[in-house]
Amino acid sequence: MSTTWHVLGAGSLGTLWATRLARSGAPVRLILRDTARLQAYEAAGGLTLVEHGETQRFAVPAETPESIEPISRLLVACKAYDAEAAVAKLAPRLAPGTEVILLQNGLGSQDAVAMQVPQARCIFASSTEGAFRDGDWRVVFAGHGFTWLGDTCHPVAPIWLEDLSTAGIPHEWNTEILTRLWRKLALNCAINPLTVLHDCRNGVLQDHHCEVATLCSELTELLERCGQPAAAENLLSEVERVIHATAANYSSMHQDVTSQRRTEISYLLGYACKVAERHQLTLPHLTQLQQRLITRLHSLGLPSD
Ligand code: NAP
Asked: Reduced to 3 states, what is the DSSP secondary structure of residue 176?
């Protein structure tokens, strides 16, 4: 009997994973916030995945955190700022050796979760897949991509990667997952806050070359200081390539701000600034960028943490 995938959070990525796993025949259970959300989900009759214009519904069973069934494999699909508290509630249900897969963007939330569940093996993921909700319990698979997974403590890949292959989830085991997460964080710090401050699509940053280059130089210094030289290699040229390749897109942070949603700033730019401070590294432009972004978020009535 295969191990059940408990999916914590039925938002964009949680639904994308849960529906593909369920479609392939893997046992999946959703863990929803509370009884009210569970009732709303049950009334909707399942999760809907919209892929290539086609709609499919999956009646994935769901429960609340208070359910007592033990958890052996947990996919955490909350936002970075919700992950620690959400997993803490489940800690008593996690047996020794439970595997916890963390899909959060940025850095900081993974360590916070790992502290809550020392009995578990925590696996970090970094994904370029894209999905958004166009209704409650309904997700559009917008951008096909790739997911890298890795464990900073144990290099050996888990057996259940086979489940991902069967479910058609493109992935690779990566023994340098922290490097990948740092690289993605640096790209995010160089692009996303500026798109909010200039209220623009990514491509407009081509007109702000000096500002982008100065940030990349400080981010490179930071990555080298905190033992991530590989994540620092040719950062500016990759940032420029991404800005060019995604010129017509609005960054995820811009989309969050436009929709009046809380951003993940504390796990992206905020995390970079905190680590710089810990290393007693003075990065004036990055610090100023953080201040400007916080001021902008406040002016829009959004949280800055
Ligand atoms: P999302 O659509 O906002 O989904 C988050 C889900 O977590 C929501 O359904 C929310 O429930 C649920 N949740 C929060 N606290 C919970 C709790 N205590 N118990 C149970 N459920 C809880 O977020 P997302 O876009 O999937 O992003 C998740 C993470 O993946 C983020 O770190 C994001 O940066 C990263 N990521 C996303 C994408 C993407 O394309 N979406 C791509 C790459 C990486 P409610 O519905 O009740 O609010």
From this structure: coil
Judge whether residue 1 has pLDDT over 80. no
Give the tens place of pLDDT for each residue, 44-70: 999 999 999 999 999 999 999 999 999
Question: What integer best gives the mean pLDDT of the chain?
Answer: 97
Residue 77 CB–ligand 1 contact under 6 Å: yes
Ligand 1 within 6 A of 8 CB? yes
Q: Which residues are CB-neighbours of 57 under 8 A, at least 6 positions away?
A: 45, 46, 47, 48, 49
Could you tell me which residues come within 8 angstroms of residue 122 by beta carbon, excluding any fewer than 6 positions away?
100, 102, 110, 113, 114, 151, 153
Would you call 274 a catalytic residue per the annotation?
no
- Of ligand 1's listed atoms, the one at least distance from the Cα of 86 is 18
Q: Are strands 47-51 and 138-143 parallel, antiparallel or unpaired?
A: parallel
- The active-site residue, picked from 79, 89, 184, 274, is 184
CATH of the domain spanning 5-174: 3.40.50.720
* Atom 18 (ligand 1) nearest CA: 86
Is 131 close to ligand 1, i.e. is its CB under 6 Å away? yes
Q: Can you say whether the dihedral through the CA atoms of 94, 96, 98, 104 is positive or negative?
A: positive
CA 296, distance to chain mean position in Å, is 23
pLDDT band at 113 (very low <50, low <70, confident <90, very high): very high
State the pTM of this model.
Answer: 0.97
Say how many residues make up the chain: 305
Distance between CA atoms of 64 and 155, rounded to whole angstroms? Answer: 33
Report pLDDT digits (tens) over 122-135: 999 999 999 999 99
Given the candidates 1.10.10.10, 3.90.190.20, 1.10.1040.10, 3.40.640.10, the CATH classification of the domain at 179-299 is: 1.10.1040.10
